[in-house]
Write a structure and sequence with these properties.
The chain is built from 12 helices and 19 strands. The chain has helices at about 5, 20-25, 75, 125-140, 150-155, 165-210, 265-270, 320-325, 330-335, 350-355, 365-405, 410-415; strands spanning about 15-20, 25, 45-50, 65, 70, 90, 100-105, 110, 115-120, 160, 215, 225-230, 240-245, 260, 280-285, 290-295, 300-305, 305-310, 355-360. The strands form 6 sheets. Strands 2-9-6-7-4 form a 5-stranded mixed β-sheet. The protein has a 4-stranded antiparallel β-sheet with strand order 12-18-15-16, with helices on one face. Strands 5-3-8 form a 3-stranded mixed β-sheet. A hairpin with a 7-residue loop joins strand 6 (about 90) and strand 7 (about 100-105). It is globular and about 75 Å long. The two termini are about 40 Å apart. The relative contact order is 0.12.
């Protein structure tokens, strides 16, 4: 992997770049055999695995000190796992590629991480920021059909600009402070987005609760009972039946060309969930309340087990049903009805059929409600889009600040105290 292929911005460094492995001891981790119970008794060594990546995703955690699992000294001794010293920098390289932190105590890792124990020429906090600057590049070049991975031969080629150690510490201190300011703004934006979503839900609830609407059950608005889709999909390349999963519901229109496919004979076994234009699809496992309407170009597709198909009666608006499925009223009923006997929250079809709601009894009232719902969705979508754009801008500025500082394109001595978030207000 060449420097220009991985991170073109490294070529603009004021300082020479060096392979990280020449200034830090490169390592990795291992999983002791699960078939040896004695390796998993008296566990006392923190063991970083992909289950801990959630702590690193937002790039705000400098030191990781707690892990979901521990490993035993015997398990370490009888496997290729290694206990790394506090101060070691870690990078996730499998499945969740590009997330990094510094070990706050002596720890081991699974094989899903690369580690660097810095020598006297490299400051761990500076290396951490440099790796975070590379994160988008690492994700871009990761390979693999099932899980994206950066393989160790490529990890060995990673380079870092190498200014004097005092300069590295100044850069790290500057970036610690300035990225924290950006992160604070980003947190405020996220909070505002949540408030917007809460207001949208309350407004939709109010729209569906107008005086004069008749109480009914969801099943009376549908031409058939809700059904969930394919239990065990078998994906194929090329021609087949397009397959809709929960994540596809986020932006279903326009997804046709990117959906995975399953064999026609498998889809035929679930003929009742083969989609028609205007069907309402709803997530019913794990994430609740994510809904979408099947567009014309996805007629004839099929759905996953975690997705339910709702087919409205001819005189019932699919858009209104889809909107109601996102309201706090629906989510409250879904929470009450969700099964706790499964690994993920799961909503049963019979329970879903019997959900209660208020519905306009005349076509005129239904048209009036639809107009109100559409206006509410437009207004709140416009607000959410504006805040989302600002959040993206903050992320771009954060990334640009890191890459400019670690390559010396930004003089942190003269930049300290300047408002690097100028133009982005709360």
């Amino acid at each position: 992997m060449t420097e220009s292929r991985l991170a073109p911005w490294l070529s603009s460094s004021r300082w020479p770049t060096a392979p990280i492995r020449l200034v830090a001891r490169l390592g990795s981790g291992h999983t002791p055999s699960r078939s040896k119970p004695e390796y998993w008794e008296n566990c006392s060594v923190p063991w970083v695995t992909l289950a801990d990546v959630w702590q690193l995703r937002e790039g705000r955690t400098t030191f990781i000190t707690e892990t979901k699992e521990m490993v035993s000294p015997l398990g370490l001794a009888k496997s290729a796992a290694v206990k790394h010293p506090a101060g070691t920098v870690i990078l996730s390289r499998t499945a969740s590629v590009g997330f990094s932190a510094i070990m706050g105590r002596d720890m081991a890792t699974s094989q899903d991480f690369a580690t660097w124990t810095c020598g006297p020429r490299l400051e761990p906090r500076y290396l951490l920021h440099a790796l975070r600057g590379m994160a988008p590049d690492l994700k871009r070049v990761a390979t693999g059909s099932t899980h994206k991975t950066i393989y160790m031969p490529d990890i060995e080629q990673l380079r870092v600009p190498l200014p004097p150690l005092d300069e590295q510490r100044r850069i790290a201190g500057f970036l610690d402070a300035e990225t924290a300011r950006i992160d604070n703004l980003a947190s405020l934006r996220s909070r505002q987005l949540r408030l917007i979503e809460e207001r949208r839900g309350s407004s939709l609830n109010a729209a569906f609760s107008r005086h004069g609407y008749a109480p009914t059950r969801l099943k009376y608005l549908l031409s058939s009972r809700p059904r969930y889709g394919v239990l065990v999909p078998q994906f194929i390349e090329g021609e087949g039946v397009r397959f809709i999963r929960v994540n596809d519901l986020l932006d279903l229109p326009g997804r046709s060309a990117t959906l995975r496919t399953i064999p026609e004979e498998l889809s035929a076994q679930y003929a009742r969930t083969i989609t028609r234009t205007g069907d309402v699809l709803l997530s019913v496992v794990g994430t609740m309340g994510r809904s979408a309407i099947v567009p014309p170009d996805l007629e004839g597709a099929n759905i996953a087990r975690a997705v339910a198909s709702l087919r409205p009666r001819p005189n019932v608006s699919a858009e209104l049903i889809s909107a109601w499925l996102t309201t706090p009223d629906f989510l409250r009923q879904a929470t009450d009805a969700t099964s706790s006997d499964t690994a993920q929250p799961t909503l049963g079809m019979e329970d879903l059929s019997n959900f209660r709601l208020f519905w306009p009894t005349s076509s005129v009232d239904q048209a009036d409600l639809l107009h109100t719902v559409q206006a509410t969705q437009r207004n709140f979508s416009s607000l959410a889009s504006a805040f989302h754009r600002q959040s993206l801008l903050l992320a771009e500025r954060r990334q640009a600040l890191i890459t400019a500082a670690v390559t010396g394109q930004l003089d942190v001595t003269t930049a300290s105290g300047r408002n690097v978030t100028e133009g982005v207000t709360v």
